[in-house]
Amino acid sequence: MKLSPALAALIIAWFAVLGCIQAVTLEVKEGNSTCIKAQLSASFSISYNTSNSTRNVQVSLPDSATVDTGSSSCGTTGSSPWLVAVFGPGHALGLSFSTNGSLYSVANLTLQYNLSDSSVFPEANSSDVVTVVSSSVGIWATINTTYRCVSPSPFEVGGTTVTFSNMRLEAYMPGNDLSPTESVCVADQASTTPPPTTAGTTTTVAPAPTPPGTPERGMYSVNNTNGTVCLLAQMGLQLNISHFSLSQNKTVQELVNLAPNLTSSSGSCEASSATLVLTQERTTTLNFTFTLNSTSHKYHLSGITLLANWSDMTAPFSASNTSLNYLRSTAGRSYMCNAEQTLFVVPTFSLNTFKLQVQPFEVTTRQFATAEECQMDQDQMLIPIIVGAALAGLVLIVLIAYLIGRKRSHAGYQTI
Ligand SMILES: *[C@@H]1O[C@H](CO)[C@@H](O)[C@H](O)[C@H]1NC(C)=O
Ligand SMILES: *[C@@H]1O[C@H](CO)[C@@H](O)[C@H](O)[C@H]1NC(C)=O
Ligand SMILES: *[C@@H]1O[C@H](CO)[C@@H](O)[C@H](O)[C@H]1NC(C)=O
Ligand SMILES: *[C@@H]1O[C@H](CO)[C@@H](O)[C@H](O)[C@H]1NC(C)=O
Ligand SMILES: *[C@@H]1O[C@H](CO)[C@@H](O)[C@H](O)[C@H]1NC(C)=O
Ligand SMILES: *[C@@H]1O[C@H](CO)[C@@H](O)[C@H](O)[C@H]1NC(C)=O
Ligand SMILES: *[C@@H]1O[C@H](CO)[C@@H](O)[C@H](O)[C@H]1NC(C)=O
Ligand SMILES: *[C@@H]1O[C@H](CO)[C@@H](O)[C@H](O)[C@H]1NC(C)=O
Ligand SMILES: *[C@@H]1O[C@H](CO)[C@@H](O)[C@H](O)[C@H]1NC(C)=O
Ligand SMILES: *[C@@H]1O[C@H](CO)[C@@H](O)[C@H](O)[C@H]1NC(C)=O
Ligand SMILES: *[C@@H]1O[C@H](CO)[C@@H](O)[C@H](O)[C@H]1NC(C)=O
Ligand SMILES: *[C@@H]1O[C@H](CO)[C@@H](O)[C@H](O)[C@H]1NC(C)=O
């Protein structure tokens, strides 16, 4: 009898903690046929300004989110298929898709939030509806298969972070339900997540034989023509490449770490652009281009080029994307991200970074200037605080329940 209120309190508190994680099912239909179906949990980390400070809030996609049939479409009229989920007063999450016949991918990810919703954004100094878009998302799968990613995957979208987890989705669907065949994301292949129980699942993205583990952190720099250091970088790098393997006679997805002791750096620095070129044993060349906007005094990583000529390849692998927008910071400062970040470059190549710090402009000494830290690091610092607060609350509830229980049984003894 004494235990039951405490137990009830424990269960309630437990559900309150778990309750933040919800999975939502969203479907876009045309007539009787479904063309996009998504089951996912999503949370958003959004910064906004009050009159005298900047605040950060965590919002999760609620169960009540529904598909906006007005904006969503199957894309039969020449436009791309588009899934738009709306929730709360004027918030929306949009996923637009494209295909080339054999693969489909999320072409852009849109988040819209309404700062006048004071329950989410208390004391916001603006009542604007803000829309942010990212076109480098890296969610892609073979057509007629379901994209699966149970592991949380964060995406930086215009200063906010969108984190998907427990995600299963398919576009250009051949039937009205998710295809049983799955394309499994790299994070799930690497983690200890048990493989899906569905029999006969053929993952089109071949699992890497042995994941190479976290790469070692390298220190790289670029010198000016007069010998002074003009670019500093410190990071662990992991290449994630899909290529045709000679030995296995099929396309494989490989994770390869860059070994700092075998890698040399070079590059160049100009007023509004800086290039870092990393070369590992003449077989791998990785080129980073940073661009400075002299008006806004902000810089970002705008281009990544990879050339790889490995013995197991039929032809040299080359990939390049020069319209990227990663690692955004202010001139004269460094950009830092201790958390693992995935920089999507092209469907067949992405780059994982670990414990990264870079400063491509206005390097005055051989040391990094003040760092601007990525959103993911800031979020991770919040987690222990939230967990601590939840545990403290739990202990308090149990203690109160125990005291009440004790008082009641004492009262009982006295009346006998
Ligand atoms: C949808 O299905 C119903 C019953 O199966 C059928 O009567 C109706 O014509 C279908 N509508 C379309 C647009 O195919
Ligand atoms: C908040 O205000 C600062 C300057 O006070 C500005 O640089 C920043 O862009 C603002 N952030 C948002 C999300 O509006
Ligand atoms: C910000 O403004 C609010 C209301 O104007 C005030 O209560 C609060 O103390 C201020 N905070 C700081 C850090 O100035
Ligand atoms: C994102 O996709 C939607 C739907 O295809 C399109 O209307 C919108 O213009 C796209 N946004 C950007 C920035 O490409
Ligand atoms: C679609 O894109 C992938 C990756 O870029 C490529 O391997 C494939 O050949 C393309 N398919 C078609 C039909 O163009
Ligand atoms: C996908 O499935 C549909 C229906 O089963 C089929 O017509 C189409 O050819 C398939 N596409 C590919 C690329 O396998
Ligand atoms: C840059 O110059 C320093 C000496 O000033 C030298 O030790 C270093 O090796 C040079 N780095 C590169 C990449 O050339
Ligand atoms: C080296 O060259 C850069 C520009 O190319 C210049 O800003 C810097 O002052 C020069 N340093 C020395 C010691 O001459
Ligand atoms: C590679 O695979 C293809 C088809 O899967 C097969 O025709 C070919 O003989 C194989 N080549 C080797 C060297 O095993
Ligand atoms: C590079 O470092 C790795 C791991 O620290 C070590 O095993 C390897 O022998 C080193 N190679 C050279 C050429 O120093
Ligand atoms: C690196 O990329 C920049 C911009 O894309 C290009 O100008 C430069 O030639 C490239 N360098 C190498 C060594 O590939
Ligand atoms: C530089 O930043 C300003 C202000 O944010 C913006 O208006 C301009 O378009 C940017 N220039 C380039 C080349 O991106």
Automatic annotation (TrEMBL):
One GO CC annotation: lysosomal membrane
InterPro entries, per the entry: Lamp2-like_luminal, Lamp2-like_TM, LAMP_CS, Lysosome-assoc_membr_glycop
Region annotation (Disordered) ranges: 188-216
Subcellular location, record wording: Cell membrane; Cytolytic granule membrane; Late endosome membrane; Lysosome membrane
Species annotation: Dicentrarchus labrax (European seabass)
Family: Belongs to the LAMP family.
Membrane topology: Single-pass type I membrane protein
Gene3D superfamilies named in the record: 2.40.160.110
Domain Lysosome-associated membrane glycoprotein 2-like luminal: 25-157, 215-363
This protein's name: Lysosome-associated membrane glycoprotein 1
Presence of keyword Zinc: no
Taxonomy of the source species: Eukaryota, Metazoa, Chordata, Craniata, Vertebrata
Signal peptide: 1-23
